[in-house]
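Revision sheet: structure tokens.
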Amino acid sequence: MVVNPSIIFNYSPLLVTIFPFCFGTLYAYYRYETISISNSVLFLLGIIIIQLLKSLLNKPDYSHVSHQYLKNQFYTFMLIMFLLVLFRLVYQTNLTVLILVGLTLLFHSFYWTAPSKRFTPLLVGIGSGIFLTILTVYLHLYAFEDFSFSLSQSPLDTYITLSNVLSLVTVSIPLMASTTNLYFSKLLKAQAFDSLTFENNILISFALFIIGYAAIILGMINQSLPMQCILMSLTIYPIIKNMIVFSKDPHGKTSLIRINFLLFNTAYSLCLVIAIFLRS
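Predicted:
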């Protein structure tokens, strides 16, 4: 039996949330040497639930009324579960988590509700790549917070500074760029008939990866990222090669953009794993 590898890529919405979660967890351990297991489990459960809800909403089945009724019941149950998980996370932390979750969901919702799809890939990229990564790191850092103290008196205050926030944004930009590119490929495929527009957008797609690599270099310079991230240079050739092949056949080679996404983010996370291993 031959399994079509493209089946794996049908779970792109889940991948664009799992990668920021994994990277954020690794980064929290690498940079701050802390991990909150309870917050991680709750957050991961919330991610899975919200992806199930999105899949249910995006693929309704009206062929059988009874089946639709069961789906509605399941949707209600999962929605309640998500709210309970979110409430527990906020209870264990603070309202900042609620705000970050709200911003992430808001930016993701623009992909389906915005009248113009031109900038929606960027909004999804910001939601997943930046807000979700920062949220993950924040949840791990909040393990230091003692609810009997004010924020200014807690150890958490030593971590939540402007320089650290800027560092988090810097290390999140590569995730944002790759996620934006993943969703941008859908627009490229739809615009393939217009050669001028397609060529301009292909350049934008290349530029997104350049931005991602530039952010990694900046992160190494300001020591937000380990020097092991220089290994990301090994991904440049295969990614560019896949982009060139895709530009010649956007309808038949869409999976190459998804392969680029997996390659880029897996390598980015592995760089942190290597840095953590060498440090220990």
